[in-house]
Design goal:
Largest interface: A-B, 52 and 36 residues
Helix content of chain B: over 70%
Structural class of chain B: mainly alpha
Strand content of chain A: under 5%
Distance between the termini of chain B: 166 Å
Number of domains of chain B: 1
Strand content of chain B: under 5%
Order of helices and strands of chain B: HHH
Oligomer: heterodimer
Number of domains of chain A: 1
Shape of chain B: rod-shaped
Helix content of chain A: 55-70%
Number of strands of chain B: 0
Number of helices of chain B: 3
Largest sheet of chain B: none
Distance between the termini of chain A: 48 Å
Radius of gyration of chain B: 63 Å
Number of strands of chain A: 0
Number of helices of chain A: 6
Structural class of chain A: mainly alpha
Largest sheet of chain A: none
Chain lengths: 260, 164
């Protein structure tokens, strides 16, 4: 939503506001639009899962959808981590569910109601960062718990000549430390970029039509075609980014469990 | 970028609400609902598998029964053939025996008949001789008036008959 007519402010949609007259004073319990959307994500996730809990022998459509959703995640974790991966399924499922519902809810065209707009929780790096740090913390805890100091062997690929080890170990170590950042930033950047693109070209359509000139209408038409494609792409990106986050988290857990 | 500008004012609230939501999802969905749904799927898969196994077993049993029926039929046929062969052999034997006994009887009758014929012939011949001898004596007596003894006539007739 542009702040004023004719002025494009694509960052406004990422603004966090206190709700119910609450001021952003840096305390934990402030209820914001971001918190509201997290609760909406929570409610949608619960609604979706609850609809699939009929536990019938022959599943209906909803139950089949929930079952394939669950099987998708648990199958991915089991394929990547092996049978020991079963105890990590709840966490991977949690982040996957939260991310995919946040991503899709952020695309709901609420802006047609004046003054409203959806808030994409995953476009905040405070959110993606915390999820990445938690996943990384699980990797560290599991790694040191299972292997003790042998966990550092993760940085030493077996069968490497000594000279190469001098080079490879620091590289492996740095790439390991970068993991939480890449995990958090990938999702955050994908979400923010897509939403800025949608916002900017959406405003091109509105401003082009408002200008009334043939050139403005032409630009609006082109922007409309473009935004159709971007919307389809964004829907794809929403699912892919959730999948990538969950996949990488389970791959990192696999490193911690098996040390390559 | 609001994410940076607002960072110090919102991060605690963001983390609080995020942790709350993630904890609720983790506890109630991840640990509560997901294992139940997995169990439902596993149960269904196990049931489908057991049904398939049962079907396969039934199929194997049917195959076995068919095989048994086939071997039973083959056996029965073999038995029937051997029974037929035995019966044939027995019948042939009986026929042969009956034929042999009939042959023997026929031969016996034949030989008896031959013997009686020979006897009758011999009798006929012998009676012919005596008749011939008597006739010859009469003829000789009538023609020449010579009385020929019966023995002489008989010997002469015998000689002539033997020549003839």
């Amino acid at each position: 939503m542009a702040a004023e007519a004719g002025k494009i402010d694509p960052m406004h949609q990422f603004q966090i506001q206190g709700l119910g007259g609450a001021a952003l004073d840096g305390t934990p319990f402030v209820f914001t639009n971001s918190a509201l959307w997290m609760l909406i994500v929570l409610a949608c996730a619960f609604l979706f899962m609850w609809g699939g809990m009929k536990r019938e022998l022959v599943p209906g459509r909803w139950q089949a959808a929930v079952e394939s959703f669950v099987e998708f995640i648990s199958g991915m974790v089991l394929a990547n981590v092996g049978p020991e991966g079963k105890k990590y399924v709840p966490w991977i499922f949690t982040i996957f569910t939260f991310i995919i519902f946040s991503n899709f809810l952020g695309l709901v065209p609420l802006a047609i109601i004046p003054g409203q707009h959806p808030f994409t929780v995953t476009s905040q790096f405070t959110v993606t960062g915390l999820m990445a740090i938690m996943s990384f913390a699980i990797v560290l805890v599991v790694g040191f718990w299972k292997h003790g100091l042998h966990f550092f062997k993760l940085f030493v690929p077996s069968g490497t000549p000594f000279v190469l080890k001098l080079l490879i170990v620091p590289i492996e170590f740095i790439s390991f430390l970068v993991r939480p950042f890449s995990l958090a930033l990938r999702l955050f950047v994908a979400m923010i970029a897509g939403h800025i693109l949608l916002e900017v070209f959406g405003n091109f359509i509105v401003n082009g039509l408002n200008s009334g000139s043939p050139l403005g209408i032409f630009i609006a038409a082109i922007s409309f075609v473009f935004i159709l494609g971007v919307n389809a792409l964004e829907l794809l990106v929403c699912a892919i980014q959730a999948y990538v986050f969950a996949l990488l988290a389970s791959l990192y857990i696999n490193d911690a469990v098996h040390l390559h | 970028m609001p994410q940076l500008n607002q960072l110090m004012f919102v991060y605690q609230s963001q983390w609080f609400w995020l942790l709350l939501c993630l904890a609720l999802i983790y506890i109630f969905i991840g640990r509560g609902m997901v294992p139940k749904i997995e169990n439902v799927v596993e149960d269904r898969n196990a049931r489908i598998q057991s049904d398939l196994d049962a079907a396969e077993r039934a199929h194997a049993e049917a195959d076995e029964a068919e095989e048994q029926a086939r071997t039973g039929e083959l056996q029965a046929r073999g038995q029937a053939q051997s029974v037929i062969a035995d019966a044939k052999a027995a019948a042939a034997e009986q026929t042969e025996a009956a034929l042999a006994s009939a042959d023997a009887k026929v031969a016996e009758k034949l030989s008896a008949a031959e013997a009686s014929i020979a006897e009758a012939r011999a009798q006929a011949v012998s009676s012919l001789e005596s008749v011939a001898a008597e006739a010859a004596r009469d003829v000789v007596a009538k023609v020449s008036g010579v009385e020929v003894s019966a023995d002489q006539a008989a010997a002469t007739v015998k000689a002539v008959l033997a020549d003839g």
